Amino acid sequence: MLKIKNLSKSFGSNDVLKEFSYHFKPKTVYALMGANGSEKTTLFNVLGGFLKADSAEMIFKNESITNMLPHQVANCGIARTFQDMRLIPALSVYDNVLLAYKNKVSEGLVASFLPPKKHQHTKQIEDILKQTHLLDVKDSKASDISYGQQKLLNLAVALANDFDLLLLDEPVAGVQPEYREQILKLIQGFNKTVIVIEHNPEFLERLTENILFLDGGSIIAEGNYESIKSNAQVQKAYL
Questions:
Q1: Which of 44, 150, 190, 219 falls 20 to 30 Å from 29 in CA-CA distance?
Q2: What are the C-alpha distances in Å from 104 to residues 79, 100, 111, 139, 167?
Q3: CB 77, CB 163: distance < 8 Å
Q4: pLDDT at 105
Q5: Residue 199 clears pLDDT 90, i.e. is over it
C-alpha cells in the first residue's frame, strides 16, 4: 500500500528524520509511538505533502507521491486528521461532511446550504453520520457538539473522502471513554490502511498489534504493546 524508503528530513543542522524506511501493508492498522520530539507528526506532514523531504522514495499504490502537494496527495486517496481538528465551526455537522464529499453535485460552498433532499449524496452522507454516531446531531453546528463528537466528525469527513490510507493524529486525546470506544471500533472496522499517532496506552493495546516506536526520527522497536513496553531501547527513550 505505502512504501517509504530512506526518508530524511532536517531543519537546518537538526536531522529530524533519518533514512526512515517502512512498508505499510493494505487494510492494516498501525500505530506510531514515541516520546515528544520523536518526529511522528513530521512524518505525517511529509507523507501528506505539507513538508518536503530532503530525500526519499515514497510509493503509494504503485505511484510516486514523493514531491506531491497536499491536494495531490489527497486526490490519490490519502486522508489526514489534525490535532487541532480543522472543521468549519459555523457549519452544521452535515455540511462539514458534504463539503468533503467527493463527486458531489457542486464544489461550491453555496451547495452546502441547499435543503438536504436536493443533495445527490444525502443517503451516503447520512449513512456516514450513522456509522460515526452523529446522525442525531447532523443539524447542529460543529462548534456546538461535544469534543468527542468533533473527533468523530473528523472521521466522518475522512470517510466522505473515500480514503485508502488514513493518517490519524491523536484521535482520542482528551476524549471521554464513551467516545474513545466508538472511535476504537470505527478505526478497527474501516478495513483500510490506517496509521495512528496516539499516546493512550490502553487504546493502543486494544487497537493494533502493529506498533512502531520512533526515537530520533528512526524506528527502534516494532511489535504489539507488550513487546514495545518491555523493550530496553524504548524504556531508555522514555527516561
A1: 150
A2: 17, 9, 9, 19, 23
A3: yes
A4: 45
A5: no
